[in-house]
Structure to design on (861 residues):
């Protein structure tokens, strides 16, 4: 009773190189196996070999062999393996196709030819496990988290031994992620074998029993999460993100302050002991007092966006109700909250994509009202979440030029701007390449470039790091930092709390169309009740610093500084509430330092 | 918000019928609409269909009107254009080269009502039958299951694709694209930046769907169905009435009843 892969190689008809390169693995019943690795390393391809989609349905060349409970996937059709291996993909939209929850759940067992009573029983059981009880609902109307849970349930009704999940939570909000993970843990407890592809190594380290690291189609490392993630240097080299606590303790080890690399928060007790032994340390409180002082002059700064009593109603449901706030020039603001809290609706008012039902928006002192979206595009750049939803041109350069053509900029100036922006976003070498051949991170940079080319003061980034691997995320973060240094105002709409902790000067939490809290990250992330109420979670390193009694540190480097006892001054500077004022001196240094550490 | 289905959940005689007899009923009404051409017969047909929806399906007129409204422009066009082409008969009004005859107006009215009654005949089916029952009925009537599945998937993915299309439009507008500007050719060209990402998204969706369908044991053979259709006594009754009425109509039509007489 196991899945065994022996010397597995695979190559798509369209690909030049091997996508899977002599992979050997074994998944036993009851295992919880995580597969990690950078984008393009073959993780998703590996997934599809477990239930025979590869080689049965997808064209390509496969050597070696995969057996599921003794059945070779080369000799058995996908439908013969379907009641052994269930598969859940990243995008819930592409796995749900029925008109009701019940039908969705019935599809598998119907195909298996089960009697009606059995199907009913399995539907009942599966819908209870995932907690979707209204079986008449149209799957499209469910939330993202519910859709993924339904996808899982639609596999459960076939009673598989193994459940393979390909980044099931990467498109979900924090609450959806939690719910889906909770279902997985429950299933694992009940004896289900789980194979999970996941970018979030914080989660993997705490829950998986085994991890394999895949790069360029090869398994370069496998073992317990502890064994794998302890090798921080090597993991980073391969472009695999390690849990923040591993990164932190690795740095401590280098400095002789800890004995070994820890990979989960549960082990933090041991870490605190380590630190006590190795060094008598002075407790340093973080600069909360300083922040308050600094906030005062932030408000005197130039307001680039002012929102006054904004309300918006969408088919009878209020989406935004009476929102007022302002954004300072040069600020990095993070808008966070669950899906449906009104974040996207709010920012769509900034460039006129939506018009307020009540209230007013001023951009740079002028009302948005009466201006077309195209006019606003010169001031407010809006980069949408999925770059694939806007890429259409034949070359990267043409793609970037599109906005300028729309704004009727003369050709000479267009070429100049395009070249400049391509260089800035590190895409110049791809200028004549077809955009679809770019990697995920490069596509994201292209999307940013094609908005940046219009030279807007304000840049709205909707989930800029979603689905990106370590190296791509870093390149996006560094790009945003650079833009911020050039005095752009940046508005981040995101669920990625690490990104928020790393970048934002101020956070606004939205819930049901209202602002429930706003303040600098340190203040927001130290309020655990507030976070819990809004189903948000502080970054792992912040939790650790609170557990260790170092207050609310936002990044690994900050906590390191705090531990080493030279923390306070640098920490204060990190927040740099003054926006513009902090940029020249210490804050700039801080940025450079963080770049190195990442 | 795009509605995925016209189905309106109610407890009624029509809702409880087997979808196959409802398909039969719709087809019957449809053929009556085509058989006759007299404006009075068309009006009677249309109003009786509305009556069936109101009484037997308990669907309020306001709900019907939401969908009827969509074809009203066509009806108005029929009313306006037919009289222009029917130039012979009792002249009611003439100006320059335009002649309006009584027959022309009757023809327009007949065509208007015919259009309405044909549409309402299909509404009758769609508003009282869930899509999955409809597809199941078609499969039971001999449609291949994979065709039925394909039809169902296509219908269920309409809102998702519409949502993606809206997002793409917003994303391109944010890059300065102005869809309203320019002449017709320019306007069509402006849809290229929307169509290309939409087609790519649809292909991605289809790739995922094919994996999902395969992974759920599609094609294993000997498929069972959770839902069962029951052809009960009342279905036999309704179907027989439909047969009798349609036969009667054919006879009447052969005898020359209900045909518009043109000079």
């Amino acid at each position: 009773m196991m899945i065994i892969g022996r010397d597995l190689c695979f190559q798509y008809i369209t690909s030049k190189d091997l996508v899977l390169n002599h992979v050997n693995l074994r998944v036993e019943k009851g295992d919880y196996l995580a597969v990690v690795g950078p984008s393009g390393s073959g993780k998703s391809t590996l997934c599809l070999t477990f239930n025979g989609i590869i080689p049965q349905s997808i064209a390509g060349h496969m050597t070696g062999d995969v057996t599921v409970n003794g059945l070779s996937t080369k000799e058995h059709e996908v439908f013969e393996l379907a009641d052994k291996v269930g598969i859940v993909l990243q995008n819930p939209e592409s796995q749900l196709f029925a008109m009701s929850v019940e039908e969705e759940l019935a599809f598998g067992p119907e195909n298996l030819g089960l009697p009606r009573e059995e199907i009913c029983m399995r539907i009942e059981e599966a819908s209870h496990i995932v907690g979707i009880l209204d079986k008449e609902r149209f799957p499209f109307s469910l939330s993202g988290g519910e859709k993924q849970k339904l996808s899982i349930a639609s596999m459960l009704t076939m009673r598989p031994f193994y459940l393979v999940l390909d980044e099931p939570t990467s498109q979900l909000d924090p609450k959806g992620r939690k719910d889906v993970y909770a279902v997985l843990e429950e299933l694992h407890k009940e004896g289900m074998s789980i194979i999970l592809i996941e970018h979030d190594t914080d989660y993997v380290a705490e829950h998986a029993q085994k991890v394999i690291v895949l790069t360029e189609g090869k398994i370069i490392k496998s073992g317990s999460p502890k064994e794998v993630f302890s090798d921080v240097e090597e993991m980073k080299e391969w472009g695999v993100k390690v849990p923040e606590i591993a990164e932190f303790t690795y740095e401590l080890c280098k400095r002789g302050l800890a004995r070994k690399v820890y990979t989960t928060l549960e082990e933090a007790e041991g870490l605190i002991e380590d630190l006590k032994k190795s060094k008598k340390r002075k407790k340093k409180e973080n600069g909360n007092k300083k922040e308050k002082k600094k906030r005062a002059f932030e408000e005197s700064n130039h307001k680039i966006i002012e929102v006054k009593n904004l309300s918006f109603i969408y088919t009878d449901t209020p989406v935004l109700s009476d929102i007022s706030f302002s954004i300072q020039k040069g600020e990095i603001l993070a808008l966070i909250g669950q899906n449906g809290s009104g974040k996207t609706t709010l920012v769509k008012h900034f460039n006129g994509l939506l018009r307020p039902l009540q209230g007013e928006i001023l951009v740079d002192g002028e009302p948005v009202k009466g201006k077309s979206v195209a006019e606003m595009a010169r001031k407010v750049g809006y980069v949408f979440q999925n770059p694939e939803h806007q890429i259409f041109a034949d070359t990267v350069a043409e793609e970037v030029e599109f906005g300028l053509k729309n704004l009727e900029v003369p050709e000479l100036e267009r070429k100049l701007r395009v070249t400049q922006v391509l260089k800035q976003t590190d895409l110049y070498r791809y200028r004549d390449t077809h955009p679809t051949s770019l990697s995920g991170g490069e596509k994201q940079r292209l999307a940013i470039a094609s908005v940046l080319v219009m030279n807007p003061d304000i840049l709205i980034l909707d989930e800029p790091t979603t689905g990106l691997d370590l190296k791509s995320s870093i390149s996006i973060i560094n790009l945003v930092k650079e833009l911020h240094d050039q005095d752009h105002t940046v508005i981040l709409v995101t669920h990625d709390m690490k990104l928020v902790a790393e970048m934002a000067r101020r956070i606004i939490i939205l819930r049901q169309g209202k602002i429930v809290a706003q303040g600098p990250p340190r203040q927001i992330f130290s309020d655990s009740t507030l976070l819990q109420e809004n189903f948000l979670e502080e970054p792992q390193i912040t939790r650790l610093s609170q557990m260790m009694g170092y207050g609310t540190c936002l990044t690994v480097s900050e906590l390191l500084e705090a531990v080493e006892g030279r923390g306070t001054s640098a920490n204060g500077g990190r927040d740099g509430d003054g926006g513009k004022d902090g940029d020249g001196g210490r804050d700039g240094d801080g940025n450079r330092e963080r770049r190195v550490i990442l | 918000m795009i509605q995925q289905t016209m189905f309106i959940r109610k407890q009624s005689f029509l809702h409880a019928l087997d979808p196959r007899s409802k398909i039969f009923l719709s087809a019957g009404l449809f053929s009556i609409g085509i058989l006759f051409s007299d404006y009075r017969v068309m009006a009677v047909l249309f109003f009786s269909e509305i009556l069936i929806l109101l009484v037997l399906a308990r669907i309020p007129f306001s709900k019907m009107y939401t969908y009827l409204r969509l074809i009203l422009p066509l009806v108005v066009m029929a009313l306006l254009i037919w009289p222009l082409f029917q130039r012979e008969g009792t002249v009611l009004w003439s100006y320059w080269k335009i002649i309006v005859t009584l027959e022309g107006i009757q023809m327009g009215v007949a065509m208007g009502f015919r259009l309405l009654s044909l549409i309402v005949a299909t509404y009758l089916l769609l508003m009282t039958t869930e899509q999955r029952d409809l597809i199941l009925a078609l499969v039971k009537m001999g449609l291949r299951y994979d065709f039925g599945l394909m039809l169902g998937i296509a219908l269920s993915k309409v809102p998702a694709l519409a949502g993606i299309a809206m997002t793409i439009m917003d994303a391109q507008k944010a890059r300065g694209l102005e869809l309203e500007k320019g002449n017709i050719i320019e306007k069509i060209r402006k849809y290229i930046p929307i169509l290309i990402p939409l087609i790519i998204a649809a292909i991605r969706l289809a790739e995922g769907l094919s994996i999902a369908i395969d992974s759920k044991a599609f094609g294993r053979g000997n498929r069972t169905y959770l839902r069962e259709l029951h052809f009960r006594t009342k279905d036999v009754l309704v179907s027989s009435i439909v047969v009798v009425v349609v036969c009667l109509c054919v006879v009447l039509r052969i005898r020359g009843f209900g045909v518009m007489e043109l000079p």
Notes: Chain A is about 40% helix and 20% strand. Chain A has a mean pLDDT of 89. Chain A touches chain B through 74 residues (CB under 8 Å).
